[in-house]
Amino acid sequence: MGKVVMYSSVSVDGFIADEHDQPGPLFAWLTSGDVPLDESGVLKVSRTSYDYVRPYWDRIGVTIVGRHVFDLTDGWDGKPPSGIDHVVVVTHRPEPEGWDPAAPFHFVDGVEAAVATAQQLAGDRIVEVSAGDVGGQVLAAGLVDEVRMDVAPVVFGSGKRYFGSVHARHLLEDPDVVIPGNGVLHLRYRVRR
After folding, report:
1. pLDDT of 39
2. Whole-prediction pTM value?
3. Which residues fall within 8 angstroms of residue 5, CB to CB, at 6 or more apart?
4. Exposed, middle or buried by CB within 10 Å (0-12, 13-18, 19+), for 62?
5. Domain CATH code at residue 164
6. How many whole angstroms from its chain centre is CA 132?
7. Do the beta carbons of residue 129 and residue 137 sit within 8 Å?
8. pLDDT, tens digit, for every residue of 53-71?
9. Quick one: which of 8, 46, 133, 151 is 20 to 30 A from 178 by CA?
């Protein structure tokens, strides 16, 4: 099975969005360079960021998100973002009315079921868990192998926390990746077991 990675861009003070779910300048680094990150031509990063991010994105098989993120993005119109094969949505509600059953989205109740479903779908590829409340729940359940952060040079002061509402201590190893890019610091930590 592939490893489970919690991931997001984050402010220096640990927020993934403001109180109104707006990421503000957190994603500015994705358009701050001259190397295309995907086929859209919209995302352009520094060569350093490309060399770190692109191989990671290519290994992601499934992304796990909460229903809140799914609703905010309108389910990406039934097409998983960034070329990912499947999206697993953690929710206590049924899929939206009129949702295309052929879309590669899987609605499950609870983070343990989400990780099990995602790992089955991903095979040996990475299962990515979006940071925030669902990511924090997966971490609290002891199911996260690695934490990746793209730290943007901004302080929000308040908002949606990277680790959600986790209130217990979780130890991480020393960072094994610390890479400065244009307007971003890429960090990777393994979760201590």
Report:
1. 85
2. 0.94
3. 126, 127, 128, 129, 144, 145, 146, 147, 148
4. buried
5. 3.40.430.10
6. 9
7. no
8. 999 999 999 999 999 999 9
9. 133
